[in-house]
Amino acid sequence: MTTHPIPLRRLALDRLIKDAGGSALPDDAPDEPHFSELLDECAGLLNAITFTKKTDGAVAQATFGAHPLVTYDPAHSSQRPTTDDAPFRTASILHEIMHVSVDLLYRKPDDPSDAAYWRSVNFHYSPAPAAAFAQQTTTVSANLEKIAARATADPKVDAALRAHIGRRVEYGLATPNVHYDTVLLDLLTYLRLKGHTGKDTLFGYLTRLSQEALDRRTDPKGGPVPVAPAT
What is residue 8's predicted lDDT score, i.e. its pLDDT? Predict the structure, then answer.
């Protein structure tokens, strides 16, 4: 089998994930360029973030601002038989790094007091009514619910994976304004580490949503979150 070596710039990311007790990242696959882009995005931020190991039971947590911090507990266990902890630790580290990325990339209000409220929000600020905060939050919630529906309908998604996806969607729905790009990344990572690829329906669907989010957050003139397709 032909393997694709991980770029040198991701060696530090590999070391971080190992230290966090996570599953090793997969080799790059030529038919999954978007997932490779996401890994590069995360790897490119490592020098801007302070990473600290803790024994607090929290899988990973991020704080933002001028000096971003990500903490992680390698001994974290979800204590759920339907979640594989090592892949989840990897997915969670990337999730927290993505929080820092979206905080840097998404447009915020000019008013510093308003901008603080938009810390790590997963969509662009715009004063235009069509891109209002509440409307984008509603769209994100609906898109996350579609992911859960797709997982339920996909025969390749077994009961354990479906339960895990359901919990991640619920997590995102609790604070949808800050958990869209981040949850898309952690789900893609978890699925990839559990053997799903671009040829699988759910992985492909998540890739479409995540590619749209990547295009939007890296475009300073990006618009509001679009409604996800039903299929």
Answer: 57
